[in-house]
Amino acid sequence: MSTTALHALLLLSLLSCSSARSSSEWAKRSIYQVVTDRFATSDLSSPACDTAAGKYCGGTFQGLQGKLDYVKGMGFNAIWISPVVENTDNGYHGYWAKNIFSINSHFGTAAELKSLVKACHDADIWVMVDVVANHVGPQSPGAATNDFSSYMPFNSPDHFHSFCEISQNDWDTMNQYDIEHCRLANLPDLNQDNDFVRTTLKKWIQNLVEEFGFDGIRIDTVAEVDKQFWAEFAEAAGVFATGEVLNGDPTYTYAYADSVGSVLDYPLFFPLRDAFMDRSDMHTFSSKLDELSTAAASHGKQGILPAFVDNHDNRRFLCHTAGVQSNDWTLLKNALAVVLLGKHIPVVYYGTEQGFTGCDDPSNREALFGKYDTSSLLYSFLVHMHAARTMAEDHASFFDHSPVTCVTDSPSSVFAASRGSMLLVANNFGSDAQEHEVVVQLPPSFPAHVTFVDLLGDPSASEGLSVENGKVTVRVSNGQPRVLVPRDW
What is the pLDDT of residue 401? Predict the structure, then answer.
């Protein structure tokens, strides 16, 4: 290689490294998660989609590109898309890889995927792609358990672990050996200790990110592979990575962030749903939130763990809101407020803004086709919440502050937290609740003599809202959350 060519290669490498989005930059992003097949068709038509059938419904890269204004309009500045590789039959969700070096033709072409990413970047929307390195798609009906000839490039028995299945007892006892070496849902389990498999997966993720210009990756089924492999895989990707560890124990789950870089915040997900969906004691939730904040900080990950209310693997929040009424949008708004204003990367699952109510997989993967109502109450709520995030950053370096839990006189039903000079008052009263006056004790660091305004569109609710003796009395009507900022912002 000539000296000139070597210098050019080094410069290209430096430019690639410098353009990677850091975890601290991702901490200021807000992610909208889509199931590509269910978001938008190329011609924006609305074909029927039977979620129970588990088949493709027609969503494409072109369709998603055509509806970026819908996503941007809510205030999101990042999207998380389904895995993009060629899948086995009926792999509409993307998690059943057949050929990792080929793009799923049901979604579109490689050129159309590149066009989508470019359009996102032109709109200042970062793109996180979902990836799978634990398993491939189901084997063809009737195929022997050691017949892998239909997969590419992993088509030999030595590319996979010997046949066994992860049992419920393995999960209950955290039998890590079986979790890492056996099949999840009978999906052939890749052997990352095989040199060819390990090297190929790392080269593949590096090429995928570089070719399409992805800004981040979400890694599926992280607990099912050893941590050292993930450290090498994330390094090869060269961009922000977050992993799925579907476990509510912070000690177990956050440990994977040390290898991957970040993990989805399932330890927050479960108590969040308990507090706002099942209306459990809010004081318990406040204590748990403080515990999780300390645990995340101990790993150096506070602020970069994606938090969420629901997703494609879990029933939607509106599937069940016990004790009040089904589909209580007010409880959902309170939960979303905690996610959007907390010290983490917020993720909102597509369809939430339209009040989707799907329960367990596959019912929670509804088609959004033709349902892009930008005047819906939840769409408008997300617009207001993102405006609050932007205002807080413009006036008070919002992302430099961590939330501080506040004491209230209604600890069983109200959660209050300040972040800088913004105050969130969330509750689980429900939409049929009467008006409540809640006294919030502000932390000593909170500015004195502040007069508040409400950012959620109810100016009258802010009348007389001033700090006195370190306290403020907040009026909560119909169970609505309150987001308060100083009037002089």
Answer: 84
Q: Is residue 353 among the annotated active site residues?
A: no
Cα dist. 263→192, 219, 234, 256 in Å?
A: 20, 9, 12, 7
Q: Among 215, 224, 244, 454, which one carries the catalytic annotation? A: 244
Which secondary structure element, helix H or strand E, spans residue 266, and what is its range?
Answer: helix 266-276
What is the model's pTM?
0.94
The helix or strand, by DSSP H or E, that contains position 407, with its residue range, turns out to be strand 404-408
What pLDDT is attached to residue 377? Answer: 96
Q: Which of 178, 220, 310, 353 is catalytic?
A: 220
**Predicted local confidence at residue 257, as pLDDT:** 98
HSE-CB at 65 with a 13 A cutoff on CA atoms is 18
Question: Which of 312, 349, 329, 313 minimizes the C-alpha distance to 277?
Answer: 329
The whole-angstrom distance between residue 411's C-alpha and the CA centroid of its chain comes to 28
Q: Under 8 Å CB-to-CB from 426, ≥6 apart: which residues?
A: 276, 334, 335, 337, 338, 414, 415, 416, 481, 482
The pair phi, psi for residue 475, each rounded to 5°, is -90, 125
Q: Is 165 among the catalytic positions?
A: no
